Amino acid sequence: MKQLFTRRLRGVAIAATSAAILVSASACLNSLQDSLLEQQQPQVILPVSVSNPTGALGLYTGALGQFRSALNGHNNNQETLWNWEGLMTDEFRSGDTFLQRNNADQRITDPGDIQNLSVYNYLQQARGFARSAINALQQFSPTSTSDIGEMYMEMGFMEMSLAQGYCANIPLGETVGGVPQYTVPITDPLGVFRVAGSRLDTALTFLTASNAQTVYVKNATLITKARIMVDTGNFTGAAALVASIPVSYQYLITYSLATQDNEWWTMAISTKRYSVGDSVNINGDNTPGNRIANAIPFVNSNDPRVVVKDTGSKSFDSITQWYVFKNFGRDDPIALVTGTDAQLIIAEAQLNGNSNTANGGNAASWAQMTATLNALRTAPPKLGIYQPAAMPVLVAPATAAAARALFFREKAFWQFARGERFEDLRRLQRQYGLTQDLVWPTGNFEKGGSFGTNVNFPVPVNAGNGSETANPNYDALKCITTTP
Fold first, then answer.
1. Cα first-last separation, the chain
2. List of residues 6+ apart from 452 with CB closer than 8 A
3. Which of 431, 419, 367 is nearest to 397 (CA)?
4. What's the CA gap between 222 and 301, in Å, rounded?
5. Which pLDDT tens digit goes with each residue over 190-201?
6. Distance between CA atoms of 239 and 369, rounded to whole angstroms?
7. What residue spans of 266-362 are helical by DSSP H?
8. Whole-prediction pTM value?
9. Distance between CA 109 and CA 103 in Å, rounded?
10. 19 has a pLDDT exceeding 70
């Protein structure tokens, strides 16, 4: 049974399918996977009894499924992290009547928001499934070192995502022997990043073989670790770490009708609840006072990296013009990390003069950055299965401000809808010293009032709904939502 499953998972199309989630290998695995995907307590990791390598493989498979679900894959019209972050940035706007989605779009999400709770729970649950899989693989299939390394990479990625999305008050509890181990929340703004980095260091100790699958997972681990290094201000170390990764590399999350849909398809196409963002208001009004400050005009830029269709109709709320994101369809894969991401990490080091000082570059280093960006534009790598057309070359900027703006604009188009933009806006405050009114969507909110001041999501405290209120060590008052 395991041989049949692993052949399906790691066959000829390895680069497209290693992150393929919940493949139906046999009836027994299907049954186990169904149980794996049942709701767990969000703040603890519940053990699943296994007694052989097949069961350990099932836990591994289920963990990959939960990983996908936490980022961008549900069939129940509920946001996951990338969707939620896309609303709060300039990538997407709410075309919905639901208060929670409009609040996220307006940057006024509060700790009691039920949708925020759901997004947070998915992330914590994904950590739990990965830990259970690690324990089972190490006990019953210890030679599956690539799978063990992938699970540590998954844990690190989820913890990095928590740190990028939520305020600095995040507990990282687990369950040991069936008993919840409630931990003290990590209030250091960079503390969860450090924990995530340690997971990736552990992953790399298992990813030492030279076979294709191991190298495939190792590249994803290196890029994720480099992202954390960028998050903590080590630009040069991050660039060095990913220098050898091929530009064409992609670790793909895949979808199918038999498992889960691409959530962007569900929210932005099937139900019309999301519309692609722009710098003009929901009906295309570009008059003074109606422009959205700091927003990239993703709709009107006509950039080949973000394909947008004007449907000529309204979104679910019957108010918002419905602009559809067309890079991929219902079951098309989305890249978790790519060689393009690696090149952008290198370009950010060049932006900063190949030093760890934000805004520390000069004309020579900005020319290097521009050359790296132009290499991507003239020979564009694929985005999932979508192939952008070549683009004209950029002119090297002459000032630090222009170089920074150019870099983060290019980065936004290359990484659109993949969970990068949110942390980039936070970093522009934290690392580059900009104030939020120069970074985040600002001004009059399209559905009334003004944009709020949240620059992250609050850790949820929904009493009785499985939030961190079960943790006796948790103090919601420590969550300062205005801290980048």
1. 48
2. 106, 107, 108
3. 367
4. 32
5. 999 999 999 999
6. 12
7. 339-351
8. 0.90
9. 5
10. no
